[in-house]
Design goal:
The chain has 714 residues and is of the alpha/beta class. It contains 33 helices and 15 strands. The protein binds one DNA strand of 7 nucleotides through helix 23 and helix 25. InterPro entries: DEAD/DEAH_box_helicase_dom, DEAD/DEAH_RhlB, DEAD_box_RNA_helicase, Helicase_ATP-bd, Helicase_C-like, P-loop_NTPase.
Length: 714
DNA sequence: AAAAAAT
């Protein structure tokens, strides 16, 4: 797409959502199907505000618009861009997503064991097919299901009004409004764009798969075509894979199709908590789905069968190489240099799918190699899409990777940059807390892959300094987290700036229905992967819970971190993190903290101090809970127990990475035992609860200090 | 409560 239409017409039009008519109408509609509680939401104010602004852009908009109004000044944006103001009223889609996410969280936190009728207050969920009498097919269905049964919603809900029928009607309506120049895309917006990216530019010859690549892209288009035609019948008809128990887990993500990497073992554990756990089981409902165009079905099924067979025999996995998966030799070499000689399971599963151009949802537990799983094929694909083209000065990015924290964005770049550079592509980090200058400078020179956090990325988009219109791949790392309340809206807006039909990759160790809002709007027939057998039995992390007296807490913590290896301590608040770091320091144990109250320089430096081993103790808030990889943290201490099982999983996942051993200890008081039990149950973690006082041997043991060694080190 | 933009 020509760059020229970007800053002016293109982006604002893209943002504008004519589907719902005038603001007044949507406001009315908002009330129509929405329960009263909606009115109490704080977001409402913001939304209404945004809507107002948008309705009178020329008048009221300026005082709030950032940046200069005269050309040549920093932050200048042409007035026409006003229509593309970032803040908008919530679309039905967004609200659906928000409710979705909120519902999941609420259930996770409070209602897991509640009776099913609990959900009846949430009609949208129910008719998602969860309780549909049609049987397991409802769950299995990867088309209607994946779209969350848009055909099934009760009439009258505005949300459904938009979703009813082919979702493309909504898409094209929006496109129509953007102006005539986009009509050329209307018939096959998503697929064709993607196909063009790979096909039109000589990708196939470069691909190790050769001509196969071309057919895969064609396959994408065909599949989507098939889906459009046959969605209805799939909705009701494909019951061929009834899985026991699926109907009893209505809440979970059964709507997604899952292509298993290997047979699931955790499935059989039969924990009661599974009922309400929005993860694992339903993601594994079926190995591979014969749901696409029949012609290509077979080829793809073969691929998955192969993976499955290999995975069953763990030994056979070792036979797959990155090259086999479709990555070029430069990339393979670089991966080897990064220490990834052979693909991990999640990588073996997702790399081919990404290379095909499919949207992918993937869950692999912490430390299982997700970054490479999306990063390596992403680079390959960007490369293919540019094959034969000159890398122009000032070209706009072809891929974007979003992460929830700056440290994670940095870390992802550290992994992906060498891969990209090995094939002549450039990456840049775009995150807040640092001056824009360098980032903007890099963008001006031309960057192929952008890695960053939502705030700054959106900021630069709005300043007209980042153009995502040519961005054909978008990755959300920690996708479920990115779909949480404060995150999802900017993420959605950013994704809307990417090219029509851009490929979407969602990765997380705890991927669940929380991503529904995004999946619904942005993904087309995603492949869904998880690595089977990722239960505690196969984990290398040992979990323990210490039940302590509150007055002992400080001393016990100090005793726990007074040890040889690297220790990561999690605190609930920034202030407490600071306090603990200081306390440890005062006790002669060098420690630093990591949290959002620190400036970015300190954040980076403190994390680096742990990585480099200059300190062995880092006290962090949940800013460090997800994704952060420090090689050899062998003890994670939760000074405050987390509230959410997902947080527990991510925090504890800072240790025991890539098969190494690690230990997690959580401190709780007696009063918290019950909550803790429930949370561990959701996390599917067995951990002994042990009473501990300040000088108990158990603390020495957990710290890894046998008494004698302790004496030696003192 | 934390995180994510800058002001």
């Amino acid at each position: 797409m020509p760059k020229s239409k970007k800053p002016q017409g293109g982006r604002p039009a893209r943002n504008f959502e004519p589907r719902y008519g005038a603001n007044k109408t949507s406001f009315h509609d908002r009330h129509h199907g929405a329960p009263a509680r909606d009115d109490a939401r704080p977001e409402r104010g913001g939304r209404a505000d945004a809507g107002e602004r948008r309705s009178a852009p020329a008048a009221g908009g300026y005082d709030r618009r950032p940046g200069s109004r005269s050309a040549g000044h920093r932050g200048y944006r042409p007035a026409e861009a006003e229509g593309g103001a970032p803040k908008q009223r919530w679309s039905a889609q967004e609200r659906a997503g928000r409710d979705e996410a909120r519902g999941i969280r609420n259930r996770a936190e409070s209602g897991r064991r509640e009776a099913p009728h609990h959900r009846d207050e949430r009609p949208r969920r129910d008719d998602r097919g969860a309780q549909r009498p049609t049987g397991p097919g409802t769950y299995r269905d990867d088309r209607g299901g994946q779209r969350f049964g848009r055909d099934e919603r009760p009439a009258g809900d505005q949300r459904r009004g938009f979703r009813d029928g082919d979702h493309r009607s909504g898409d094209s309506a929006r496109r129509d409004d953007r102006g005539g120049q986009r009509f050329d895309r209307d018939d096959r917006p998503r697929r064709d764009d993607r196909g063009a990216a790979a096909q039109g530019r000589g990708s196939a010859d470069r691909s190790p798969r050769g001509a196969g690549d071309r057919s895969f892209d064609a396959d994408r288009a065909r599949r989507s075509f098939d889906r459009d035609r046959t969605q209805r019948s799939f909705d009701g008809g494909r019951d061929e894979r009834p899985r026991n128990g699926e109907r009893s887990r209505p809440v979970t993500g059964g709507a997604y199709r899952t292509e298993r990497v290997r047979p699931l073992t955790s499935d059989t554990r039969g924990r009661p908590a599974h009922n309400e756990r929005p993860s694992r089981n339903n993601w594994n409902a079926a190995p591979s789905a014969p749901s696409r165009g029949a012609k290509f079905e077979q080829a793809e099924d073969v691929v998955h069968e192969r993976l499955e067979a290999q995975a069953v025999q763990a030994v056979e996995v070792a036979d797959v190489t990155f090259g086999d998966l479709g990555l070029g030799s430069n990339i393979v070499e670089t991966l080897a240099g990064l220490g990834a000689a052979k693909p991990f399971a999640i990588q073996a599963a997702s790399i081919p799918a990404v290379l095909e151009g499919r949207d992918v949802l993937a869950r692999g537990r912490t430390g299982s190699g997700k970054t490479i799983a999306f990063g390596a094929p992403l680079v390959e694909r960007v490369l293919q899409s540019q094959a034969g083209k000159r890398r122009e000065f000032g070209r706009s990015p072809r891929a974007i990777i979003l992460a929830p924290t700056r440290e994670l964005a940095l870390q992802i770049d550290r992994t992906i940059q060498p891969i990209a550079r090995s094939v002549g592509l450039f990456t840049t980090q775009i995150y807040g807390g640092v001056p824009q200058g360098r980032q903007v400078g890099a963008l001006k020179k031309g960057v192929d892959i952008v890695i960053g956090t939502p705030g700054r990325i959106e900021d630069l988009i709005n300043q007209g300094k980042l153009d995502l219109s040519d961005c054909r791949i978008a990755v959300l790392d920690e996708a479920d987290h990115m779909c949480e309340l404060g995150f999802v809206e900017p993420v959605q807006r950013i994704l809307r700036h990417t090219a029509d039909g851009s490929q979407k990759l969602l990765f997380s160790a705890t991927l669940d229905r929380e991503v529904a809002a995004l999946v619904d709007e942005f993904l087309v027939e995603p492949a869904v992967f998880e690595v089977a057998g990722e239960d505690q039995g196969s984990s290398t992390i040992e979990h323990r819970v210490l039940v302590i007296e509150h007055r002992d807490k400080a001393d016990i913590l100090t005793a726990l971190v007074d040890r040889e290896g690297k220790t990561l301590v999690f605190a609930r608040t920034r202030a407490y993190a600071d306090m603990l770091a200081e306390q440890f320091d005062d006790a002669g144990i060098p420690a630093v903290s990591l949290h959002g109250d620190l400036n970015q320089a300190k954040r980076t430096r403190n994390l680096e101090r742990l990585t480099s081993g200059r300190v062995n103790v880092l006290v962090a808030t949940d800013v460090a809970a997800r994704g952060i990889h420090v090689d050899d943290i062998d003890l994670v201490v939760q000074a405050d127990a987390p509230d959410e099982y997902k947080t527990y999983l991510h925090r504890s996942g800072r240790t025991g990475r890539a098969g190494r051993t690690g230990r997690v200890v959580t401190l709780i008081t007696r009063q918290r035992q019950r909550r803790m039990t429930e949370m561990l149950d959701r996390a599917e973690i067995d951990a002994p609860f042990e009473n501990a006082r300040v000088n108990d041997d158990i603390i020495e043991e957990i710290a890894g200090r046998v008494p004698t060694a302790a004496q030696l080190t003192r």
